[in-house]
Design goal:
- InterPro entries: Glyco_trans_1 (IPR001296), Glyco_trans_4-like_N (IPR028098), Glycosyltransferase_grp1 (IPR050194).
- By secondary structure, this protein is α/β, with parallel strands linked by helices.
- It has helices spanning 45-51, 56-77, 87-100, 112-119, 121-130, 142-151, 193-203, 220-229, 244-253, 274-281, 294-297, 312-324, 326-343, 346-360; strands spanning 8-12, 20-22, 25-30, 82-85, 105-109, 136-139, 157-158, 180-184, 210-214, 236-240, 256-259, 286-289, 305-307.
- Strands 10-9-8-11-12-13 form a 6-stranded parallel sheet, sandwiched between helices.
- The model has no long low-confidence stretch (mean pLDDT 92).
């Protein structure tokens, strides 16, 4: 941000990672446990705690030692504002420094902490206590905004993520090429990949199509077994995690991006769906489900197609409609590209943050 402001980042270590400076921004990594157990902050802390209850010990240390080290960092650099992402648990960590040094806090909710508040009453109580103490509150989508309002009605603003890839018009499709569907995301329940594989089986009864799956996760083995059971192996590629350059190539070469997200058995779903923004940045038509924050990104019939969750037939029909009408698919992709270049551009999002910071200070 070329605003004259100076920023520092306070974030947990991962496997003993050290503090560093990046393009003039100091990144302070706080240690909270032995190196081999400093793994809470990737692949979902709630999932790890559920599968390995002993992770509760480093989780408690995470909050206590994080609060202590943030206190001393604030004593050293005396910031004018604390911008707290994921207010549970980070609001607890920021609160002592905020109170003792009279530093206003801005909270940004991303969805995961609100799922925890629905499952655990003590988390909801903590957030209800913290929210009135924030000078500003933001969410990443209208869906997340509604969840925060249910906890504690307060003034708040929706500020989504910005574009994470360079926006570019799609390359012309090669005639006769087998249509390619793309999914990008963690392979867990809420992504709904089971339903996408069932939809692929339906599509293959009437046309040739292939599916490329980027990402990994706890359901990978189960999903591969489903592929074998449905005899989809010749049509499905599991690619695992990819480099940024390779991921860009996948977006560029696909015909349709699909996000079949669901509300899972724990009540979790997509807070926004950044991968759809990345697909739209490449001018690709998107088929997605109408859950969570997805409708904030996709305007059905204008920038993509929305279908009901957990409905493989609806997914297959929407994909088939786009493949049958390539001009319409291209139009959706073009309109989506134009839309996200405005709504998710960094100049617009930076201006929104500047406005909040100025009001708070």
């Amino acid at each position: 941000m070329s605003t004259g402001a100076r920023f520092s980042i306070f974030a947990p270590a991962y496997g003993g990672s050290q503090s560093y400076e990046l393009e003039g921004v100091s990144v302070y990594r706080f240690r909270y446990f032995w190196r081999r157990f400093e793994t809470l902050v990737r692949d979902g802390a709630p999932t790890k705690l559920k599968r390995q209850p002993l992770y509760l010990i480093p989780a408690i240390c995470y909050v206590i030692l994080g609060a202590w080290q943030l206190f001393w960092l604030c004593h050293k650099i005396r910031p004018n504002l604390l911008h707290v992402h994921w207010p549970f648990p980070h609001g607890l960590m920021a609160w002592p420094a905020s109170k003792l040094f009279t530093i206003p806090m801005v909270f940004s909710f991303h969805g995961g902490e609100l799922l925890l508040s629905q499952r655990f009453g003590f988390v909801a109580h903590i957030l209800r206590w913290l929210l009135p103490q924030a000078a500003g509150v933001t969410t990443n989508s209208s869906f997340t905004k509604g969840l925060v309002t249910q906890l504690h009605p307060c003034p708040l603003q929706v500020i989504p993520y910005g574009l994470t890839v360079e926006a570019k018009a799609p390359s012309p499709r090669v005639s006769g090429q087998v249509p390619t569907l793309l999914f990008v995301g963690r392979l867990d329940e809420r992504k709904g990949v089971h339903y996408l594989l069932d939809a692929l089986a339906i599509l293959l009864t009437e046309r040739n199509v292939r599916l490329r799956i980027v990402g990994s996760g706890i359901l990978e083995t189960e999903l591969k077994a489903q592929v074998n059971h449905l005899a989809l192996a010749p049509h499905v590629n599991f690619l695992g995690f990819l480099s940024k350059a390779d991921l860009v190539n996948e977006y560029a070469s696909c015909d349709i991006f699909v996000l079949p997200a669901i509300v899972d058995s724990k009540g979790d779903t997509e807070g926004l769906g950044i991968v759809m923004i990345e697909a739209l940045a490449h001018g690709k038509p998107v088929v997605a489900t109408d859950v969570g924050g997805i409708p904030d990104v996709i305007r059905s019939g204008e920038t993509g197609c929305l279908v009901p969750e957990k409905n493989s037939r609806a997914l297959a029909q929407a994909i088939s409609n786009l493949l049958d009408r390539p001009a319409w698919a291209a139009q959706l992709g073009h309109q989506g590209l134009t839309d996200i270049q405005v709504r998710f551009s960094w100049p617009r999002i930076i201006a929104l943050w500047q406005d909040i910071y100025q009001r708070v200070l």
